[in-house]
Amino acid sequence: MSVIASGPTKNDLITALVQKELKFSAILAGLVTDVSAFAVKGNQSISFPKLSSFTVGNRALGTAGSESVITATKEKMDLDQSAYLAWIIDPKDAIQSTIEWEMETVKRASSAHGRYVDEKLINVLETYGTPVGVAGNITKAIVLEMRKILKTNQADLNQCVLLVSAEQEANLLNIDEFTHADVYGAGAPLATGVVGRIYGVPCIVHSGLPAGSFYMFEKTGIAIGFQANPAYDEGPALEYGAGAKKRVLDQLFGVMALQVESGVSKLIVKHGV
């Protein structure tokens, strides 16, 4: 007797769509340090070692050198973001709509989850960012000051990003040193959403940022860890009629600022306050 191989189920196809839409809508998740590998089952938080630096000395000829001591403390990230979204598929909507109603609701639910992830990361930027000395719209001088702060704190500028709100985009475009991404040609290795660079730092305009805000940060200044990847499920919702369904999309993760001293991260700089 021949065995017919089973193809992907409806849930498999919807889960694939969810992953695709989330990747598209969650702009910031790929710009920070992903520690999901440590968010194993049974843990409610993740601990990170924070190491001090060695000090090199000048050993005199014929004398013993001094030992350098490195110390370690721990930083803890709680896995406390249980993102949940439920919605109803009313059979009348599916019948009377000219669009693929069910799939469109999945896309919008996934986009909402992506925005939720970005919102939590933006909260970290605003809460733990070191403010530049001058408040106001973004300028060349402020960008240089942000770079200076990060370089002073040993940030790797190759892993830094300038993130600006939609209201600040015009001010960014008015800086002569800003270079549009299209001059790099097709296929240039630019991150999704990058509209250009200034002094080598990629610039991204994000509509979810607070009005007038902007941030420059290094990838290792923020961590995100997914303990449960986005999961989709559905069940009957007969109170809404025959064929009605309740759909649920949820995920479990945590976010935190890293390299925090005196209430701010050394690797996150924000607009003046």
Structural class of the secondary elements?
alpha+beta
Major beta-sheet overview? 7 strands, mixed
Helix percent band: 10-25%
Strands ordered across the widest β-sheet: 5-15-10-6-9-8-7
User: What is Rg?
Assistant: 24 Å
Compute the number of helices. Answer: 5
Whole-number average pLDDT? Answer: 85
Count the beta strands: 15
Helix/strand order: HEEEEHHEHEHEEEEEEEEE
Shape: flat
Query: Spans with pLDDT under 50 lasting ≥5 residues?
Result: 1-6, 183-190
| Span of the ends, CA to CA | 74 Å
What oligomeric state do the depicted chains represent? single chain
Strand-residue fraction?
25-35%
Structural write-up:
The strands form 4 sheets. Strands 5-15-10-6-9-8-7 form a 7-stranded mixed β-sheet, with helices on both faces. Strands 1-11-12-4 form a 4-stranded mixed β-sheet. A two-stranded antiparallel ribbon has the order 2-3. α1 (10-25) runs parallel beside α3 (101-128). By secondary structure, it is α+β, with helices and mostly antiparallel strands. Helices cover 25% and strands 32% of the residues.
